[in-house]
Each structure stands twice: as structure tokens, then as C-alpha cells.
Amino acid sequence: MQESFIRFMFRYKALYLMLVPGLLYFIVFKYVSILGSVIAFQDYNIFKGFLRSDWVGLKWFEQFFNYPQFTRLLWNTLIISFYQIIFVFPAPIILALLLNELRNLAFKRTVQTVLYMPHFLSWVVIGGLGYMLMSPQIGLINQLIVALGAEPIHFLQEPGFFRSIIISSSIWKDMGWNAVIFLAALSGISPSLYEAAKIDGAGRWKQFIHITFPGILPTVMLLLLLKIGHVLDLGFEQIYVFLNPITYQTGDVLDTYTYREGIVQGQYSLTTAIGLFKSVAGFMLLILANRTSKAATGESIF
Prior knowledge:
Blueprint: H1 2-11, H2 13-31, E1 42-43, E2 54-55, H3 59-65, H4 70-88, H5 90-100, H6 105-116, H7 123-134, H8 140-147, H9 159-187, H10 191-199, H11 204-229, H12 236-242, H13 248-251, H14 254-264, H15 268-296
Antiparallel strand pairs: 1-2
């Protein structure tokens, strides 16, 4: 058996060689880096390294959990993640379903291209566009508001608008790109199923309920479970470009706090403890969501 497997690998050696860069990436940046998590239990000194730094046990976890703004950070992170699951996650599904109904290929490709383009813009560029649109002095939206006789609105300085800005910008940037996955899932549904449904007199809604939705359900559940597993990872760049001290009340999250304490203040052990907390919490949520999904829909990751 071992010899036959070696011969099999040698026969397809080119394919196995193509796997090497990917495997090295995961080994170096995903698995080896896990060893660095030990500094969460140390008073890490960058000059001593993690081999000679003093062990302090759960000191940094206790400090983080006792931080006066811990509840605010956790709540902001969870509520924005909840909004993303409720509003951002379904957006590409709806878009894919709408694009799937288009029969004019030229128009369909044009719409797809226009909707894909924002994905290739960095969050810094999008932050600049947001300022140009919502600035109280030069913003296009506020110029229209002033033209109508009202006072300009400080969108970027108002805590109440922050989460809406984050969610709407997420939808605009990634909706078109993420729709590709669901369009691929839709293309895998056999056309004969729709033809049989039409013969039986099923309308568009019945076809969606009994053919389209079951056809894309495995893809939807897989991506939803992965999203739940990263519920505490909002993405630093997007939050940071729109965040300012005035909007900390509703916009300061675990990622931005980690940046201030880890990069700016050099509290590496504290921020590693926060990262470890996020990883463990995300893993537990993933296990719970996976079991729930398996019991409710029969779909799961493992």
C-alpha cells in the first residue's frame, strides 16, 4: 500500500508540488504562529523573547475582563456582527437571485461588472469617498440637505449614524463580489428541475421554495456558519477608517482596542490574550451553530 501511494504521488508530482506553497503558508502563518499565543500568559518583553519572559498566568485575561469599557467593546462588536449577519449576509444572496432571473446577457454582465468593482477598492479609499459624501462642509449629501433649507448633519461625528455607515458600506463594497459564490451555486441546479416544475404548473415562487432555495441551502449554511465563527472579527480597516473619538460609544470594538493597546501602546501580552479570547469564543460559537444547523436543516461543516 505504501509503495503504491508513493508511485501515485510520483505520477502526479506536479500537482503535489503545486500544493507546497499553500501548505507552507498555512504551516508558517497559521500553525507555527499559534506557538506565539503563550505570551498571553507571560509578561512579555520584546528583548527577552517568549522563552525568557516571566510567566504571569491569567493576569492579562483578568485585566481585560475587568477593564471598565469591556462591556462596551464586547457589545459593540456583537451588535455590529449581528447587523452584518442580518443585513450584509443576505444581500449577495438576494442579488444573485435577481441576477439569475435576467435573460439579457449583455445587461446582466454590465450589472455584474458595476457591482463587482467596489470590492477592489481599499477601505481607505472608501473612507475618503464617505467623507466626500457626508462631510458637513463639502459632502454631497449635506449640500443637498442645505439646498433644501435644512441644517447640515454631522454623519461622521454622530455616534447614532456610525453602525448604519458601517453596514451600508459593507453591503456596497462586497455584495457584488460575494454574489459570485451564490451564482455558482445557482448554476449547479439542473434546469430539468425547473422544466418539470413548470409542467406541473409551479410558478416562480413555488420554484424558488422547492428548487432554488434547497439548491443553494448547503452553500448558504456553510458560509453562514463560517461567518458565525468569525463573529468577533469585524475587520479592523473598515472600522478604523470611519472611527473617531466621538463615535467610540457605538463604534469602538475589540479590533480597534487591540490596535491601540498592542501596536500603539506595545501591550503585546494583553492583546494576545484578547486574540486568544476571540478565537476560543468564536470556536465555541461555531460548534454551537454547527450543531444547531445540523439538527434544523441537516447541513453542517462537520
